[in-house]
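Tutorial, part two.
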Amino acid sequence: MIVFLWCVFAAICAFAFLNGFRDASNSVAAAVRTRALSPSIAVLLAAFFAVVGTLLSTAFGSFLVSAVELRVPDGAAGLAILFTAVLAAGGWGLFCWYRAVPMSSTHAVISGFAGASGAFALLGGDGVHGVARMLLGGVAIPLVLTPVVAFVLSYLAVIPLTWRLRHATSADVNTVGRLGQSITAGAVALGHGLQDGQRTAAMLTLALVAGQATTAHGIPFWAQAVAAGCLGAGVLCGGWRISHTIAYRLVPIDPLRGMAAQAVSAGMLYVGAIALQMPLSTTQAVTSSIVGSGANQRYESVVWGRVAGVAVYWLATPLVCIVAAGVLFLAVHPLLE
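Running the prediction step on this input gives:
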C-alpha cells in the first residue's frame, strides 16, 4: 500500500509539472507575441506568480474536497482511481501538447475522476461520492460558459480602450499596451496558480485519505508547497509549442488588445477562484479572451477554422479522459486483488 501511495504521489506531481509546462504559454503568450516581455523574463514572471497563487488560495481544493463532498474510496481502489485519472489526463495533455493545441487540464483530470469512478461502479464498487456534481460544476457548466463569457468581455473591453486612446499616436498606444501587458501577464499567472495549483494540493490530500495515512479533509500547507514547487518547475521548463498556437495561429493582436485579453482572463480566474470557488480553465479563459479582443478590429483577423479546431479538442477532452480513465482502471483493477 505504501509503495502504491508513493507511486500515486509521483504521478500527481508529474501531472502538476506537465500542467505548468503546458500552460506556461497561457500567461505569457500574448506578452511575448507583442514583445511586451522577453521570453525569459516572461517565464520567470509566470513561474513566480504561479507559485504565489498556489500558496495563497485553497479555493479549488475546497471545491474538490468540501464543496461537492468528494470522498475517494479507502484503500487500493481509491488510490487506483486517482492514479488512472491522472494518467488519463496526463496522456491526453501530452497528446494535445504534441499537436500544439491548448486544452484544459482541469477538465481532463475531473473527467478522469468520473471515468475511473464509473469503471469501479461497474465492477460493483462504491465509486467516488460527489463525482457527478463535480463533473457538472467543474466541467460541463464552465466548458459552455467560460469561452463565451471570455470572448464577449474581451471584445467589449477593447471598445473603451480604443476610444480613450483615439487621439494618441500608434507608438504611444503600443507603449501603454506593452506596459499594461507586463502587469496583466503576472495577474494571469497568479490566477493560474489560484486555479490550477490547488488541484495538485487537493489530489495529494485525497491520496493520503485514500491510503488511510490521514483522516483530515483539510488541505495541509505541505501539500500546497509541493504543488507550488511542481507547478513552478513546470512553468520554468515550459515549451512554446502551444504558445505559438495561441499567439500566432488564431488571431494577430496588438499590445492594446493583448492587455485587454489578459486583464479579462485574469479577472475571470480571480472571480472563479475567490468569489465563486469554481474551477475555471485557464487555457479556455486566456485563449477565448485573445480571440475576442482580436476579433474587435476593422479587418477580419480571426482564423475561424483553427479556432473551431481548438474548440473540437475542448469538447473532446471530457469524453476522451472519461473513457481512457475507465479503461485504465479496468486494466489495473485485477492487480489490486
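The CA atoms of residues 120 and 127 lie 6 Å apart. In part three we will examine how such features are distributed along the chain.
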